[in-house]
Design brief:
- The complex is a heterodimer of chains A (375) and B (286).
- Chain A is globular and about 60 Å long.
- Chain A has an eight-stranded parallel β-barrel with strand order 3-4-7-8-11-12-17-18, surrounded by six helices.
- Helices cover 28% and strands 17% of the residues of chain A.
- Chain B is an alpha/beta fold and 286 residues long.
- Chain B folds into two domains: 94 residues, Beta Barrel (Elongation Factor Tu (Ef-tu), domain 3), CATH 2.40.30.10; 163 residues, 3-Layer(aba) Sandwich (Rossmann fold), CATH 3.40.50.
- Chain B has eight helices and 16 strands.
- In chain B, the strands form three sheets. Chain B has a seven-stranded antiparallel beta sheet with strand order 4-3-7-1-2-6-5.
- In chain B, a hairpin with a 2-residue loop joins β14 and β15.
- The two termini of chain B are 32 Å apart.
- Classes of the chains: A alpha/beta (375), B alpha/beta (286).
- Chains A and B meet through β5, β6 and α10 of A and β14 of B.
Chain lengths: 375, 286
């Protein structure tokens, strides 16, 4: 340590009335400037923010009156958390940013033939087949309870035709306890020969526009990764009026039962989730963030704070935790605290200062071209 | 149901590739009944993303311990077999619904195929404690896989069948059942699906074969069906089975572990793992 520096530290406090115990005004300027300094890798900012003061709130539908304001950006992914009641004994459900409930269809569905799940390297396959009691039964059984909760419930909606989607959403519209809609468009479109809505730009746009016309609820559309270029589809969905985009749904995959010499899952194909798909999800979030202006909710392999930070830096406004819940049901609530503590440690007043920092030109200058995927 | 860490007290290989582990978790041991299970987390989340469900094998409330019995079939169970005493293992439990013994049942028939013993073992203790008589029919491929007598209470009658006849009767364990079906007030089974399917067929025809009267039943009218998965449905059933299925969350959220029920899919983790045999569709399952 140089003599001059030592002298500075020994300077009596009384000589500078602004030099409070936790503020190094001489080095980082005024307290206000240091608070808004953001991420500066070359000079770790002073820890002037307490974890409890970090603003974790985020609005997933900023363009809509009322919006979809979440107290924190940690959601639970559809299909992994049931209707929010199943884990209530072991998880403080009310602390979550939001709950995306199990996929809901117009009529009750029995789902696919078992077995429906299997573990794969660093992930799992599932082929539940949208088993649910139908939208009316779901509303009757859960909506009243949801309405008493602090945590917003986003109802995940699936269908086989645009009319199905519209009808389900129409029945959900205005129901107390339903905070928003997430469209699962990775379903076969019976009207177009079973082609998934999610792989067809026009169909994805059409179903989004039709649902948009049927409700004023905040509308989030979930992208499928099983497409050649996700950006065109994301743009079509944004243009059709979606308030937010969640990315990604599961990757299509399968497993073999070597003993019986046949496909392991009853449905042959399943959706891959878990840490194995995180790099794919990250790439898609990164691409979509350069294409659209609506908030992006990242989902795919989130299993720790590092994953949350990665997705935020890649342009997401919030993340959903899915498969990791099965191993560690307490993870989402812990992530909320860890994110607040991490932001405080970095001197960030809001986690949103991270959003899109890893994008080529920052989130504010979207480029359709971006950094493309070239295998 | 609670998330907790259970301390491994003892671990030993009781049969080739099969391990018996004793854990200390007073809260779990205190509230656990025969037929319920625990969902165990293995340490390496990045590689193994799912917990592993294990039936509770024996429970000792006085010491706050319980045991599980498993076969090493993959990376998760291999890790568990290498765990050392003193290790804290994260568990979720107790989960699922237990076996239900009708108050009037004095003679209980337990039927286990191989590792299926892990599913019904706890019921033997529970039944003996309640002053019931227990016969355990056990089936295995050969003498090397036969569950050791030393791990069973002295009071039960233990009958073994092996496929190769190296110990006990030659043949399947299901072949032994007709000799006991008249004696048994209720039967409880766990094992491979073909075994359970055969038992369910047997149980379906039992009333007619033995001429069992259906008391309290009006002529020509079916008895009021209890809701699938309800305590009454199991308590009334002559045969209760403990089912196995690939499992995700184990709390009923993911709908991954369903089996075919007569009235639609049933979750093994919530409506099960113990079902009345009559609640399930056996043709589709076999």
């Amino acid at each position: 340590m140089s003599p001059a520096r030592r002298g500075a530290t020994k300077r009596p406090r009384t000589s500078d009335p602004y030099d409070g115990p936790r503020r190094r005004t001489a080095q980082t300027g005024t307290p206000a400037a240091s608070r808004g300094a953001g991420v500066r890798p070359w000079a770790p900012p002073a820890p002037v923010v307490r974890a409890a003061d970090v603003d974790l709130s985020v609005d997933l539908a900023p363009g809509r009156s009322g919006g979809l304001k979440l107290r924190n950006p940690i959601l639970v992914a559809s299909g992994t958390f049931g209707y929010g009641t199943e884990y209530a004994a072991v998880v403080d459900v009310q602390r979550l940013g939001a709950i995306c409930c199990k996929g809901t269809t117009l009529r009750a569905r029995f789902g696919n033939e078992p077995p429906r799940v299997t573990e794969t390297p660093a992930g799992m396959l599932n082929s539940i087949g949208l088993q649910n009691a139908g939208v009316d039964a779901v509303i009757e059984k859960y909506a009243a309870q949801w309405a008493t909760w602090q945590v917003p419930v986003i109802v995940n909606v699936a269908g086989e035709s645009i009319e199905d989607y519209v009808e389900v959403v129409r029945r959900l519209d205005g129901v107390p306890g339903v905070a928003g809609i997430e469209l699962n468009i990775s379903c076969p479109n019976v009207g177009r020969g079973g082609l998934q809505f999610a792989v067809d730009r026009e169909a994805a746009g059409a179903v989004t526009a039709a649902v948009r016309g049927a409700t004023d609820l905040p509308l989030m559309v979930k992208l499928s990764p099983n497409v050649a270029d996700v950006r065109a589809i994301a743009k079509a969905i944004e243009d059709a009026g979606a308030d937010a985009i969640s990315a990604i749904n599961t990757l299509s995959g399968m497993a073999i039962d070597r003993v019986r010499r046949r496909p392991l899952l009853g449905n042959t194909y399943g959706g891959l989730s878990g840490p194995a798909i995180k790099p794919v999800a990250l790439r898609i979030v990164y691409e979509v963030a350069q294409t659209v202006r609506v908030p992006i909710v990242a989902v795919g392999g989130v299993s720790g704070l590092d994953d949350v930070l990665d997705f935020l830096l890649a342009g997401a406004s919030a993340v959903q935790v899915g498969t990791a819940l099965f191993a560690d049901p307490a993870l989402p609530v812990r992530l909320i605290d860890e994110l607040a503590a991490w932001c405080a440690g970095q001197g960030l007043a809001s986690f949103r200062d991270l959003e899109g920092r890893a994008l080529p030109a920052g989130r504010d200058r979207p480029s359709v071209k971006g950094a493309e995927y070239r295998p | 149901m609670r998330l907790l860490d259970a301390e491994l007290l003892a671990s030993r290989e009781i049969l080739p590739g099969q391990w018996l582990q004793e854990y200390h978790a007073p809260w779990l041991a205190g509230g656990c009944r025969a037929g319920q299970f625990v969902h165990v987390r293995t340490p390496d989340y990045s590689g193994l993303v799912l917990r592993r469900p294990f039936s509770v094998n024996t429970v000792d409330r006085s010491t706050g311990t319980f045991s599980i019995h498993f076969r090493v079939t993959g990376q998760g169970s291999a890790w568990m077999s290498r765990a050392r005493p003193g290790e804290q293992v994260p568990m979720l439990g107790p989960l699922g619904r237990p076996f239900e013994v009708a108050p009037g049942s004095h003679n209980l028939l337990l039927i286990a195929g191989g590792l299926g013993i892990a599913g019904v073992r706890a019921l033997a203790d529970e039944a003996l404690e309640a002053g019931r008589r227990v016969t355990l029919l056990f089936g295995a491929a050969g003498a090397a896989q036969v569950y050791p007598t030393s791990l069973l209470p002295d009071e039960i009658e233990y009958v073994v069948a092996t496929d190769d006849g190296s110990v006990g009767r030659r043949g399947f364990v299901t072949d032994l059942v007709p000799e006991y079906e008249a004696w048994a007030d209720q039967a409880f089974a766990c094992g491979p699906l073909p075994m359970l399917t055969a038992l369910a067929r047997l149980a379906g025809g039992r009333d007619a074969r033995l001429g069992v009267a259906r008391l309290g039943r009006k002529r020509g009218k079916a008895p009021a069906a209890s809701a699938p998965g309800s305590k009454q449905a199991r308590r009334k059933a002559w045969l209760q089975v403990s089912m196995e299925q690939n499992m995700g969350c184990a709390v009923g959220a993911c709908l991954g572990c369903v089996v075919h029920g007569v009235e639609g899919p049933l979750r093994v983790c919530r409506e099960g793992p113990v079902f009345a045999a009559s609640e399930l569709v056996w043709e589709a399952a076999s």
